[in-house]
Automatic annotation (TrEMBL):
Matches recorded under Pfam families: PhoU_div (PF01865)
Record organism: Undibacterium pigrum
Record family assignment: Belongs to the UPF0111 family.
InterPro entries: PhoU-like_sf, Put_Phosphate_transp_reg, UPF0111_domain
Record-given protein name: Phosphate transport regulator
Organism classification: Bacteria, Pseudomonadati, Pseudomonadota, Betaproteobacteria, Burkholderiales
Amino acid sequence: MFGRLMPTEGKFFELFNQHAELCVKGSKEMVALMTNFDDLEIRVHAIESIEKQADTVTYNTIELLHKTFITPLDRDDIHKLITRMDDILDLLEDAGQTISLYDIREITPEAKRLAELCLGCAEKVKAAVALLHNMDNSREILALCEEIDRLESDADHVMRAAMSKLFRDEPDVRNLIKLKAIYEILETVTDRCEDVANIIEGIIVENA
């Protein structure tokens, strides 16, 4: 039954793929921002633009959900998946705006590493979502979800080490507060990617 519905309701999967691609684009902009502060405002603006595009995809998905009588996945799963994916870009936008508003002049290697882990997670999310239209891909999808879990765990370790170093070595309290906020936002991006992976794993269990 699941397979028969696919051709008529493929639009949902197209929208998921569009959003996942935007998550990767936003993450790449964040890594670029962390690599070169000379382009800070350009990168922040780019992330904001990508986030707005993602909002449109999210809106279109939910609108389609309301208009579609029979959906290829559970309605609640569709809603949870697209909104959790949207959370990823909301947080990337928050990170960029926070760096700009806090007037941070120099980023740490730990913050850059967290941004790289965000990108790694987003790329795995994109890969998993791209396979979701066919439950014959379930084994590969689950392997990608495990990779997301591993990357999120890596981000936890990086943040704990970064916080320890920050409270131990940073003499400027204001700078400590600023960097702490950046670390927490970026680590939360990986948490939201893990949430997406958990939703996808649930979809596989229900439909494979």
